[in-house]
Design goal:
Keywords: Signal. The protein is mainly beta. 6% of the residues lie in helices and 38% in strands.
């Protein structure tokens, strides 16, 4: 490999920084993931980098889903993705936030979706955010399922409990609301898993 190519590769690698990589989902016959529907979206929380105290722009997000049950006729099924700030530990998308749609065009048990934001998604340094996955599907039997990552988080590798998962669901106090797992003010579990995602920013 020529020196110029080596330098180009090194520069490209240095220009990216991974904020979250929850690990490739386990490949087992019983692995299906959690259904994502119009009423019940899911999310994974992460912290932006504090490197140099500068804002960061999302480069891309990869996440693995199961599309075996999806209705793929005329792109009938789509997945919505967005990144929103964390306020009081739950996703807090501003009223102007609109999820970008990824059409589901093929069926497959292990499908990696690659999202590059159509408009810049800028993160403040050293701040908590949520990557949210929603859908237009109302029937859970036709839903796309989001796999958990294989990496486990706890006090040893996540001392601030930054990494967490949340689901929007019916709550005892009425209506639909985001519930962080575990709920009820309980501290995040050691050795917990969260939805699969690799979130990369431009350094």
């Amino acid at each position: 490999m020529q020196l110029s190519h080596i330098l180009l590769f090194a520069t490209a690698a240095a220009a990216q920084h991974t904020l979250l990589d929850s690990g490739t989902p386990e490949d087992r016959p019983s692995s299906w993931g959690s259904p994502v529907t119009k009423q019940i979206p899911s999310a994974v929380r992460f912290r932006s980098s504090g490197l140099c105290g500068e804002a960061q722009t999302i480069d891309y997000v990869d996440f693995m889903v199961n599309t075996d049950l999806a209705d793929i006729k005329a792109n009938a099924t789509w997945i919505g993705v967005e990144i929103c700030p964390s306020v009081e530990d739950v996703p807090a998308c501003p009223p102007t936030s609109v999820a970008e749609q990824i059409p589901i065009e093929v069926r497959g048990k292990r499908t990696t979706l690659h999202w590059v934001p159509a408009t810049p998604k800028v993160l403040e340094p050293e701040s908590l955010y949520w990557f949210i996955v929603s859908s237009n599907v109302e029937n859970a039997l036709q839903a796309v399922s989001w796999y958990p990552g294989s990496k486990r988080y706890g006090t040893d590798n996540d001392p601030k409990s930054d990494v967490a998962s949340a689901t929007r669901m019916l709550v005892p106090w009425g209506g639909m609301d985001w519930v962080v797992e575990p709920s009820g003010g309980v501290a995040p579990l050691d050795h917990r898993r969260v939805p699969n995602a690799k979130i990369v920013v431009k350094a």
